[in-house]
Amino acid sequence: MKLFSISEVTKELLPNKVIFIHNLNTQQPIVSVNIFLKMGSIYEPQNLLGISELLQTTIIKGTKNRTAKQLAEEIELLGGGISANSDSDYSTLSIAVGKQNFEKAMEILSDIFFNPIFPEDEIEKEKTNIIADILARKDKIFNVAIDELMYNLYGGKHPYGIKPEKYIPSLKRIKRAHLLEWWKKFYAIDEIQNNIIVVISGDIDYDYAKNVFSKYFQNFNSTKLPEIANYKTSYKQKYIRKKTHFKQGYLMYGYLVPAFNKENLKDYLSLKLLNVYLGGGMSSKLFEVLREKNSLCYETNSFYPTKLLDSHFVIYLGFDYNRVQIAKKEIENIIYELSNGTCMSQKELDEAKSKIKGRFLLDHQTNLRQGWYLGFWEIMGLGCEYDKRYIEDIEKITLDDIQTVAKKIFSQKHIVVELAPKK
Description:
By secondary structure, the protein is α+β, with helices and mostly antiparallel strands. The protein has 15 helices and 14 strands.
């Protein structure tokens, strides 16, 4: 049953409940396949923290039909690349090859999808790698600040707020049997919700792409997805000052933002523009005021990620700690302007729109990225068709929209993390 079709993009709900999206792009002789799964840390219970990432790192390490070495060699012979990644809200399994090798790539991908064996030695290697990455976070000042901020903004049991070191005991306990059980829960079809999205993007005919996919991806197991581990956020305004081994100082301000959906899309887009205005490079407000005008910081930026649950808007700067009082004053002046709706001129709004449009188009240059965006919008609930409307909706945002959401977000309680060097 076709659900959507416009110019190059077609979306169809297949009889097996898979959402199948095809993007025709004849500009490059490359075909990419992105499989999106509703699997990530938002589904993980406290005793299995980190299992989604561990599963994704080990699922490409061998199947019932191929060893890890054989998989790597076959994909290399195709001139392609494969990846398996896990985000907090979803996971992906992707491959990109020349169009002439599309069917062979689909056969390999289906083998990985349906027949992983999760070798014990590979599990232990990947556990070691993940734990090493967690421990290495303390060596970067940004990571220390953001981990503290998220913990205080969301709470220590919320999927977005769990401190990374809390994953270590859980990861050490996870066995091959746990991975197999987790794989069965998510690499399968949920009869109630559409939890598997497949996006094929490139110089390949729609009917051929669908037929090849249907040939290799059939006989899915059925599942019932676990509930999202969405702990309610309840926090008080807080100023956290910590002494660290770093030589510089750091300030990070965090604000909770309601989860985006079709009803509050205007706020979401307005905040995306506000984020570019504040932290969008060397011409941004933060860079101009804190670095160019006052020579205060080594780095400064802002970010506002698209999340399934309540998101966050963060502003930060790294600086010489001797100037901490001046830094606080200047950044809080900017936040005061935001909370009073006096930020951004029409010219600055137009510039922010131009930046977003340019970056969005640049990030759509490859078949792999085009396919990724289609799958991303689909799994986040707006539908793959939103990829064609995103820039149009950005253009509709007015200065009043920006000022309204700025007042709403930046006048509320928030968390501040200050990192100071030990003397």
